[in-house]
Amino acid sequence: MMNRIDTNRIVEAVVIGASAGGLHALIHVLSALPADYFLPIIVVQHRGKEHTKLLEEILQTKCLMRVKQADEKEKIHGACIYIAPPDYHLLIEQDETFSLTSDIYVKHSRPSIDLLFATAAEVYKEKLVGIILTGASSDGAEGMLEIRRAGGYTIAQEPTTAEYPYMPQASVSIGSICSNLTLDEISSYLKQLYERR
Amino acid sequence: MEQQSVSHAFSYSQEELKAFLDAIKFMYGYDFTDYAEASIKRRILNFMNMYKIPTLQDLSKILLKDEAVFETFIQELSVTVTEMFRDPTFYKSLRENVMERLATYPVIKIWIAGCATGEEVYSIAIVLKEAGLLERSIIYATDINQRSIQIAKDGLYPVDNMKAYTVNYNKSGGMHSLSEYYISKYNSVLFDKSLRDNVVFSPHNLTADKSFNEFQLIVCRNVLIYFNQQLQNKVINLFHESLCSFGFLALGNKESLLFTDRKSNFEDVDKKERIFMKIG
Ligand SMILES: C[S@@+](CC[C@H](N)C(=O)[O-])C[C@H]1O[C@@H](n2cnc3c(N)ncnc32)[C@H](O)[C@@H]1O
After folding, report:
1. Which domains does chain A have, with CATH numbers?
2. A144-171: pLDDT as tens digits
3. List of domains in chain B
4. Are B7 and A106 a contacting pair at CB < 8 A?
5. Is A92 in CB contact (< 8 Å) with chain B?
6. Distance (Å, rounded) from C-alpha B186 to C-alpha B165?
7. What gap in Å lies between CA A68 and CA A81, rounded to an integer?
8. Per-residue pLDDT tens over the stretch A91-131
9. CB contact A104 to B (< 8 Å)
């Protein structure tokens, strides 16, 4: 596995998928980013449908960037962390707005990381960074493959360092990953993008 | 349609999709051109994958030639996912904030638009029954998908779903036990016929068909999210036109009037549960 980090790329958006253990990993990666971080960061974190806004609230207390739940037809902007609402799939449209759907579960999940990633890949192509974090699901692997096929940059949390290695490992195993990084490395990669924007 | 994979062997451009949807509209009158694109694009790709049709042009040719295949295609395009008492707090709000006001009408006319396979219809019928209003209600339950409408009419659902529906029902403030409303038959349950005595099931296409009555309550949940803003606006106008003064409109959890020009014609009844009242 190559571990050289690609910092020369022009990036327009970052998508992140996380499942079990995700809250801590997300805080680790996102809390260090400045309030005016220039990119939109779009997150699917698997969670129960009864937890309507808790994740957003916790993340907001830890992050300088604005955190909000993604709204139906909302325009995507930089300097914001968007979280997929529970019990809906989150998709990205060509005009860089969100769509929500209540389609069938994909890989037992709604929201589906795969669906967000695949639709983001179609919109942002090589200007997309996909990050897959800890989890006990295979969701996200195919989406990462779609990002890579579209020319985007794909990062997995190094499985041996993940609280739940199964999910990042699934992405690594199907050959969808450009770099395996620790949470610290992911965080500093995102900061580097900011510094040379 | 099962959508278990996001990778597809085939692909097509936005322009090809437009031309394709235009052809469908011209030939069959079904207008999908104002559907939110990301979702419909994936559903068409799923269909192509499933039937091993490599290009959109091929699909177009097949559909224009063969009406039977077109029927199947239409079924596959519509997302039929639904459940009973989905979002229990919504039903709780219906019970607490809407029933009492509906009770003031001698005859209560209700339109459930995009009712899919009917689980929502039986849920609302149960709420009406428990409020003592079912007997003077007429429910029009409509959907674009004729196969779904047929399933809704039959009122026969897999027994495996009942556990989750019972939890939902109880959370919604149910006054009895959900099992009082159905009988089990092998692996299915059949809902009590009395629940649908006053229900008219019928096909209706929100993109093309007109208003057909005046209602005290319109329920249209998780349908508008599949439309683009223009079409959402058009459909909200249709609902506005079809509601009596002070009639209620109930949308899905993530749907709003924000982008529609009828915004100021409605007042919040329950902001979180997206229940509105027509005030002008
Ligand atoms: C996700 S289901 C929602 C079912 C139910 N209302 C609920 O919330 O559980 C969406 C429904 O909208 C219907 N639909 C899609 N386009 C439509 C149209 N143009 N006119 C009427 N119904 C439509 C689909 O056939 C499907 O049954």
Report:
1. 13-195 (3.40.50.180)
2. 999 999 999 999 999 999 999 999 999 9
3. 14-78 (no CATH), 88-278 (3.40.50.150)
4. no
5. yes
6. 18
7. 6
8. 999 999 999 999 888 888 999 999 999 999 999 999 999 99
9. yes
